[in-house]
Amino acid sequence: MFDLPKIEQAVRMILEAIGEDPDREGLVETPARVAKMYQEVFAGLQEDPQEHLSKIFSEEHEEMVLVKDIRLYSMCEHHLIPFIGKAHVCYIPRNGKVTGLSKLARLVNGYARRPQLQERLTKQIADAIMNRLNPYGVMVVVEAEHLCMSMRGVRSPGATTVTSAVRGIFKKNESSRAEALRLITKGKL
Ligand SMILES: Nc1nc2c(ncn2[C@@H]2O[C@H](COP(=O)(O)OP(=O)(O)OP(=O)(O)O)[C@@H](O)[C@H]2O)c(=O)[nH]1
Ligand SMILES: [Zn+2]
Description:
Belongs to the GTP cyclohydrolase I family. This protein has helices spanning 4-17, 30-41, 101-112, 118-133, 147-150, 169-172, 174-185; strands at residues 56-58, 65-76, 82-92, 97-99, 115-116, 137-146, 161-168. It is α+β, with helices and mostly antiparallel strands. It folds into two domains: 4-41, GTP Cyclohydrolase I, Chain A, domain 1 (Orthogonal Bundle), CATH 1.10.286; 56-185, GTP cyclohydrolase I, C-terminal domain/NADPH-dependent 7-cyano-7-deazaguanine reductase, N-terminal domain (GTP Cyclohydrolase I, domain 2, 2-Layer Sandwich), CATH 3.30.1130.10. The longest helix has 16 residues, at 118-133.
């Protein structure tokens, strides 16, 4: 359930509280705009992102699949301002169970579009894939810049936070992990 009028009310209160006039021409439609924006930015709360993995098809490929540089926009749950970055999602299918590549990007976005922590986001993506595809292993790397660290607070623009979640064979097998990392960082170093 998404309560647009309640957000409008709240945004109007924030505008008043910062000493603005919510009735001036430029701001009069702002509460409604912000409410609609939040509906979009937090749309992940209205879905179970794992559902994107319910369509599985069969392909005899038991080698690494990596979708890298999946753009993500999420909202830091501490300050409600964005963190922006990329996810790299890698898995090794088992018993020919693969998913559509776009579904991995949908999965990332489903978990990103909600108040989030980067660590939790990374873990949720990996666990969803383990759950639905039962692959030999999953490795997810997320790199992001947190605006709460750039535009306010410590004001450390350009700092990148990197998190990873490693499951199954990637945990046990150092060479699989190294191979995935090599492919993720290829062209970057
Ligand atoms: N671990 C983790 N921390 C985060 C994430 N996003 C924001 N933070 C941190 O959450 C912390 C919240 O710290 P608090 O001391 O409660 O809040 P604050 O006074 O606004 O902190 P400063 O940002 O240091 O000014 C900050 O250190 C943020 O950098 C995240 O995705 N993961
Ligand atoms: Zn923050």
